[in-house]
TrEMBL record:
UniProt-listed Gene3D superfamilies: P-loop containing nucleotide triphosphate hydrolases (3.40.50.300)
Record-linked Pfam families: CbiA
Residue ranges, compositional bias (Pro residues): 112-123, 186-197
Organism domain of life: Bacteria
Biased composition (Low complexity): 36-46, 69-83
Coiled coil, from the record: none
Domain CobQ/CobB/MinD/ParA nucleotide binding as annotated: residue spans: 266-480
Lineage: Bacteria, Bacillati, Actinomycetota, Actinomycetes, Streptosporangiales
Protein name: MinD/ParA family protein
Region (Disordered): 1-204
Length: 515
């Protein structure tokens, strides 16, 4: 500040301008809509000098009058020279923008009179460095053009800097249509141009517009008791979703419900009685029938007075022998008259309780029965007895000749485990080695009192080495009565064990050829 520009005025700072006139911006221009500029006052006459910070009354001379200009002194030519351009020491000229005695403000300076921003001189002296240095010649296009033509009082810098210093709004950026605007990403630079919208390579058709695509997925109520309680207490706002156990059950249910083409036959056997073959056949068939949409039937192939029908409420007294003696069986409803259906939709074809009649049941009879059933049922489970050497088991067209999957049942007792292992030995020695390798071992009554001394890891290791999977069924009071079985009364651990067994059986349906 304080440079001699021909007016001999000490220009005020931007803060002083704003503090005296609120209608002025920091750049020195008047806010749009404010009062019009007032007429500029005359420059201070000679003698209107005052000390900084003192009123005019205190700047009086020795006689009480104001201090006047110093008298003119003759120069070397003998003529009187003009008054010095600067006030005496300690005095400054009265600012033309300050308040006058009558309370009226003086006019603000023109935009070209605003002083340039102050820049401290560099170290070691020299000229101050401008805050907005002009661009080098030949750069920035038209931004540096015409700077010298604007006069020495113009604001230095490029066009955007001059517009900011003069209080003018910068030119708005060209608007981009919303459809072409790309979402900003942290990795993309701020000045990156908007990316073009993605265009599908292949046009879609009506088959692509599915309900799963249009409807938002909704998470149902959790199955876990405490998660369901949280869901209800919060009015559905907090849904913790499925627990790990529920997720595993969902996967097992999907495996058990694997799509099946054709007919599949499953045999449940062991040469020892009382290990739980009938219970395994009924519960496995009930789980499959409950999860699947096709028909599932369990056949009592026990030649020693089978008790499969005793696990449910029977609807008929007819047996498998009655079905064989009926030549008029043509459709499903003809067969349905010989079966009993459980609440799970599992149908059971019972055997005769007379030992003389059941002993006469041969492999050819079994072949005839399964030939009828495979036309109307997708899955047939055969509950075999202890007589593994009987013709219905090992004869031509018997159980082993037409079995797709084998389930060997054992208990946690030493005798039960050894008899199950001997069953596998006999099958491997008689040409059913592949059937044994693909079999499932079921260990019943895990945790039975009195059998806690059994080394379960060793038993599991033995059967796992001989079959593709091992399932442990824990002790369940509902199953220990050998009475009617209700799936709703089973313990959660027991239901999970049979669900795992059903998933292992259903997972093989897609791997086996269609019968």
């Amino acid at each position: 500040m304080g440079t001699d520009n021909g007016n001999n005025l000490d220009l005020p700072s931007a803060d002083e301008l704003v503090s005296h006139d609120r209608s002025l911006t920091w750049s020195g221009t008047r806010v749009p809509g404010s009062a019009p500029p007032r007429t500029a006052a005359e420059p201070p006459t000679a003698g209107e000098w005052s000390e900084p910070g003192r009123p005019d009354a205190e700047n009086a001379g020795p006689e009480g009058g104001p201090i006047r200009d110093a008298p003119a002194t003759p120069d070397a030519a003998g003529s009187a020279s003009a008054a010095p351009p600067y006030p005496p020491a300690g005095l400054r000229p009265r600012s033309p923008f300050g308040h006058t005695g009558d309370g009226e403000r003086r006019a603000e300076p023109a935009p070209d009179q605003v002083p340039p921003p102050y820049a401290p001189p560099p170290a070691g002296g020299g000229a101050p460095v401008p805050l907005f240095p002009p661009p080098a010649s030949g750069q920035n296009g038209d931004q540096g053009a015409g700077l010298d033509a604007q006069g020495p009082g113009s604001v230095p810098g490029d066009r955007g800097s001059r517009m900011f210093m003069l209080g003018e709004a910068p030119l708005p950026a060209p608007a981009v249509p919303p459809a072409l605007a790309a979402p900003s990403t942290p990795s993309a630079p701020p000045s990156a141009p908007p990316s073009a919208p993605s265009v599908p390579l292949v046009p879609e058709n009506s088959a692509d517009l599915t309900s799963e695509r249009l409807i938002r997925s909704r998470t149902g109520m959790p199955a876990s008791p405490w998660r369901r309680a949280v869901y209800r207490l919060t009015g559905g706002k907090i849904n913790l979703g499925e627990s790990p156990k529920d997720q595993r059950r969902r996967v097992l249910r999907a495996a058990a419900a694997t799509h099946l083409r054709g007919h599949r036959r499953i045999a449940v056997m062991c040469i020892k009685g009382g290990v739980g073959k009938t219970t395994t056949s009924f519960v496995l068939g009930s789980v499959l029938a409950d999860l699947r949409g096709d028909r599932v039937i369990a056949v009592d192939a026990n030649t020693d007075q089978g008790t499969l029908a005793g696990r449910m409420r029977t609807e008929t007294a007819k047996t498998i022998q009655d079905l064989l003696r009926d030549p008029g069986v043509r459709g499903y409803f003809d067969v349905r008259g010989y079966t009993s259906q459980a609440p799970s939709r599992l149908e059971v074809l019972a055997s005769n309780e007379d030992p003389a009649i059941t002993d006469a049941f041969s492999a050819s009879d079994y072949r005839k029965v399964t030939g009828i059933l495979e036309r109307f049922y997708s899955i047939c489970i055969s509950d075999c007895g202890t007589g593994i050497l009987h013709d219905v088991i090992r004869g031509e067209g018997g159980v082993l000749d037409s079995t797709d999957q084998l389930i060997v049942v054992s208990t946690t007792s030493i005798n039960g485990a050894k008899k199950a292992a001997e069953t596998m030995d006999w099958l491997e020695e008689n040409g059913y080695k592949d059937l044994v390798r693909n079999s499932i071992s079921v260990i019943n009554m895990v945790g039975t009192r009195g059998h806690n001394q059994i080394d379960m890891p060793q038993m599991m290791a033995h059967f796992r080495s001989r079959s593709r999977a091992v399932v442990q069924v824990p002790v369940d009071d509902h199953l220990s009565t050998d009475d009617r079985i209700d799936l709703e009364l089973l313990a959660p651990a027991t239901r999970d064990a049979y669900l795992e067994l059903a998933a292992l059986v259903g997972g093989e349906f897609s791997k086996q050829p269609t019968r």
